Amino acid sequence: MNTILIDGNSLTLKALALIARDNYKVELANEAKKKVEKSRAIVDDIVENEKTIYGITTGFGKFANVSISKEDCKTLQRNLIISHACGTGNNLPTESVRAIMLLRANALSKGFSGIRLSTLETLIEMLNKGVHPIIPEKGSLGASGDLAPLAHMVLPMIGEGEAEYKGEVMPGKKAMELAGISLVELVAKEGLALINGTQVMTGVGALTVYDAIELLKVSDIAAALSLEALTGITDAFDNRLDMLRPHQGQINTSKNILSLVNGSNLTTRQGELRVQDAYALRCIPQVHGASKDAINYVKERVEIEINSVTDNPIVLENGDVISGGNFHGQPMALSFDFLGIALSEIANISERRLERLVNGQLSNGLPAFLTEQGGLNSGFMITQYAAASLVSENKVLAHPASVDSIPSSANQEDHVSMGTIAARKARQILENAKRVLATELMAACQAVDFREGAKLGEGTSIAYKTIREKVDYIKEDKVMYKELDKVTDMITSGEIVKNVESDEKVNIII
């Protein structure tokens, strides 16, 4: 059985993806169990002695000054969940819900949240048995954590809300019963411990980062194929230039391109056909490289966040309970805005290369719109339109969410991050960028077929063959979206990158 141990400190992006997408099981480390129990004992003492501590024996937000009796603590926690579950919009996909559940469990396993071990184990059991709460995607301000969506995550645990179980959406209580999982009666601090965190924005954003790393590899493959199809000049990728401006992403991109096109008879040298190429070819290292550096930065932030304590108040090991701001999503909000911008630029330059491929005045001898009988056939004409529309949409989506803030809870919570919006936008930008790159890949393969006697490079030849196994040369007009769907699916599955990297001579570095 594929099982991953969690302890709050060592979760990786790869492990998160395996649990979210491949249904790997989760097990709580023994040391984590001890820490959770120790933290809970501190909360029990607070309740028993009726000490005034925010969120344990007081109300929430603006009601922080309202004392709650020991007898009312259970009611307080249940009311917190049912009142805060007011999300709206489309439901988050199952993989995002699983990532959210995992990240909340991992944060709680650090032992600073005061939750009972049995409650944490119920959340893990739901994850392992495939009880996936229905979580609407909208409704979080990204400070005081992702309160509304995380409340939806908790609803099935208390017999409320809805959940997906074995592919069917049903009442949460029924899903728990069918899976053989006991319902939870929340006690002091537990409701707050479950919903006061950044796990929705981080779950959605972390999967996007994971996919973005792979998409950047695809972007170099697409660029290399276009470089060959357009008889591009390789001098611009000379390592001596990169070392004069040694950004790592730029250095890596140049290495990737030269490795991919090595052995090609389509690329040229400076002065052979022309002195220099347009920016969309010549500046691939600078543009792709900048996005790589940005995404590697975001990856570092995410790896910190997925192993952090992000709720409030925090129960320290010495018994101190401190009300702070670790729930505030600003570190993720800025990071996911940056992620969206970086991915937008990858799509931007890809669409410009696509335009050069289909434009007979810019393609260095290729037929207009990559079709044999232009006029009777439109060829790839409208594929560029569709790509341009996605690029334009990305420009709107790339507007940062993190610069906005709306006061809430009667101005007690007067600055919020909007980080969950940033994460969702970055995800949509990634999907749009993926389609643009699929279009460039398909057009570049079509263009190569017009180059008589073409010999592709060591890496690009593998990419070309991989695509041609499912998408044929287009001699006459056909329903294009179906062909584009095939290439898009190949990017999503990782098939193109995997095949290219199977060649020991080709190493794509991010």
From TrEMBL:
<feature type="modified residue" description="2,3-didehydroalanine (Ser)">
    <location>
        <position position="144"/>
    </location>
</feature>
<dbReference type="InterPro" id="IPR022313">
    <property type="entry name" value="Phe/His_NH3-lyase_AS"/>
</dbReference>
<dbReference type="Pfam" id="PF00221">
    <property type="entry name" value="Lyase_aromatic"/>
</dbReference>
<comment type="pathway">
    <text>Amino-acid degradation; L-histidine degradation into L-glutamate; N-formimidoyl-L-glutamate from L-histidine: step 1/3.</text>
</comment>
<protein>
    <recommendedName>
        <fullName>Histidine ammonia-lyase</fullName>
        <ecNumber>4.3.1.3</ecNumber>
    </recommendedName>
</protein>
<dbReference type="InterPro" id="IPR024083">
    <property type="entry name" value="Fumarase/histidase_N"/>
</dbReference>
<keyword id="KW-0963">Cytoplasm</keyword>
<dbReference type="InterPro" id="IPR001106">
    <property type="entry name" value="Aromatic_Lyase"/>
</dbReference>
<feature type="cross-link" description="5-imidazolinone (Ala-Gly)">
    <location>
        <begin position="143"/>
        <end position="145"/>
    </location>
</feature>
<keyword id="KW-0456">Lyase</keyword>
<keyword id="KW-0369">Histidine metabolism</keyword>
<dbReference type="GO" id="GO:0004397">
    <property type="term" value="F:histidine ammonia-lyase activity"/>
</dbReference>
<comment type="similarity">
    <text>Belongs to the PAL/histidase family.</text>
</comment>
<dbReference type="InterPro" id="IPR008948">
    <property type="entry name" value="L-Aspartase-like"/>
</dbReference>
<dbReference type="InterPro" id="IPR005921">
    <property type="entry name" value="HutH"/>
</dbReference>
